[in-house]
Amino acid sequence: MDNTCELIEGSFGLYSSVNTKKQVGPVKTEYYRLGLVRSGSSICTNGLETFQLNRNFIVFGLPGQVLSLQILSDDYLAYYMYFSESFIAEMLLLTNYRGQFPFLSHAGVQCFPLSEEEGNEVESIILKINDEVKARKSYFSQAIRLYIQHIYIIASRSYNHKVQLKQSSGDVGFSLFTRYIRLVSEHFLTTRKVSDYARMLHVSADHLNRSIKVHSDKTAHELIDEMIFIEAKAYLMHSMLSIAEIAYKLGFSNPSNFNKFFKKLANCTPLKYRNKSE
């Protein structure tokens, strides 16, 4: 599989984990992402959520999310696709996609295992997409879109069978914690008060804080700060924005406050962190 960075129509890319770095990110993605693990294991961090990925795990990403990947084994093999919203816009318009494909929502679970049969089927579709990319025959972009939708349908069936069943029988406190960190990952740039998240979750701020502390050993506000910190690292590593521009983009009133915030969590200034990452 060709691991070039070329984007078809500026909107679609496909690559495998072969010869990629052992550690990637944090990086802020502009695209929808889809990955399938075929062997080995890795740790994937999506916002504030961390998953261990093994064979047949499928993982999704949304535009604006901050992702990291650490490959744990030498036999790791995964396929990855990324595509713009415009590339699949027609499909999104024609479907109730958040209902039909809950993993395309911040509120949904974006990483879960497929069965062996489902994993084999998704891999065969990805290889067909690779054939389309190489051949570039007429209407190949339309064919790729249909293949992506087919993968979404397979994933949706698995999601409905496994994930929703697990959620319905799961721990209530952990469910609240999970919903909270997904909301923070989605809204942290505009919503910084724990009380606002508590209202979204229909619980008191005290109850939310207690639940968060039990399941993360951090306060609810510390998790908001952690998400801001993750976003800051992504900008420092992968953007040309100045420190001041990053500070204002993250909602700080001035660069000095951003410097103090970052140094408290990283034990170094944003500039030193950027220089070490280069």
Automatic annotation (TrEMBL):
Keywords in alphabetical order: DNA-binding, Transcription, Transcription regulation
PROSITE patterns: HTH_ARAC_FAMILY_2
A Pfam family assignment: HTH_18
SMART domains hit by this protein: HTH_ARAC
GO MF annotations, alphabetized: DNA-binding transcription factor activity; sequence-specific DNA binding
InterPro entries, per database record: Homeodomain-like_sf (IPR009057), HTH_AraC (IPR018060), Tscrpt_reg_AraC-type_HTH (IPR020449)
Limits of the HTH araC/xylS-type domain: 178-276
Key word Cytoplasm present: no
This protein's name: Helix-turn-helix domain-containing protein
